[in-house]
């Protein structure tokens, strides 16, 4: 029976081996059809530098020109390759292997999937070796957005307000400013923002790569102080007298209102701002400015875009002329009842008129309208000042000549 079993097992042995090999081949084919091998390139895999202390200890820094990221071509099962990301790779540049041309080989591995084939060509990190320097910069606070209406940022304080930045000489020399940004949108009270990461800008206003620098403070705190605002009227008063023979003919100023800021209790004490401009002994037209801040009270600040008031003053030389008229051209007003009044007509009456040339040119004899008010007059002859209509006195200055008037009863 044992012999028969042996014969059965060894009978057609070649055919059986061929069948087994064929089955295996079919299994491999099926496996590859279901999960075939594919090739894919993963781009921008970040390269990590190690052993930088070997350079930094010599007061040098390795500034990367190219090779801080690499593109890696891999081959493997589709089920693995399709889910790979650049975070699955480990790309290392060992700076202790820095060549005389400042090139460093990059070694790429895939720790979680050693079965995946990495078709890595020769990859290197290229750079330059520079002096490592440290410089100190002021930290500027930049607000983003706008505070609530009726409020004003009076102070933005960074702590620390100075920061040391270290890096390669070529990088540090490009730095123009170090800033921290704080969002003030719709804020209506003072506040503090903590742990803000500084940003570095070059002389062109472009954001620089902070990974190429080190800071003695990685984060900064910011205090923002807000004040209430108020719009108030601005008044400018003219003081003094122009030079003899001149008069003020026109005066204007801008702005007529300004915005101030302060604590509400201090703002309530400022209903308006009153400034003064002195024209004493001046005789030429004036275009000048006054500093509005000189006229606001303590604890209140001027935040208006107009920090100065613009003054325009026109001064003109006073001129004069005479206008003559007969005594019978004088109107007699309020003659007492039952009496008659007679004006001395022995000579012409002359009125001297003073004013600017423009004003004098507008005045004619018909504008004078002289009169004498006899209300309460007594019988007899008296000397009276000639009066003039208010409409002319508002335009020019006039002398008031005298004239004799005789008052008698009517027979």
The number of helical elements comes to 8
Name the shape in a single word: rod-shaped
CATH class of the largest domain: Mainly Beta
Structural class, from secondary structure content? mainly beta
Sketch the major β-sheet: 11 strands, mixed
Q: Quaternary state, please?
A: single chain
> Percent of residues in helical segments?
10-25%
How much of the polypeptide forms β-strand, as a percent range? Answer: over 45%
Alpha carbon gyration radius: 50 Å
Q: Termini, distance in Å? A: 190 Å
Say how many strands there are.
29
Word description of this protein:
The chain has four domains: 37-122, RNA Polymerase Alpha Subunit, Chain A, domain 2 (Beta Complex); 137-226, Beta Complex (RNA Polymerase Alpha Subunit, Chain A, domain 2), CATH 2.170.120.40; 228-317, RNA Polymerase Alpha Subunit, Chain A, domain 2 (Beta Complex), CATH 2.170.120; 319-409, Beta Complex (RNA Polymerase Alpha Subunit, Chain A, domain 2), CATH 2.170.120.30. It is built from eight helices and 29 strands. The radius of gyration is 50 Å and the shape is rod-shaped. The strands form six sheets. Strands 1, 2, 3, 4, 5, 6, 7, 9, 10, 12 and 13 form an eleven-stranded mixed β-sheet that branches. The chain is mostly beta strands.
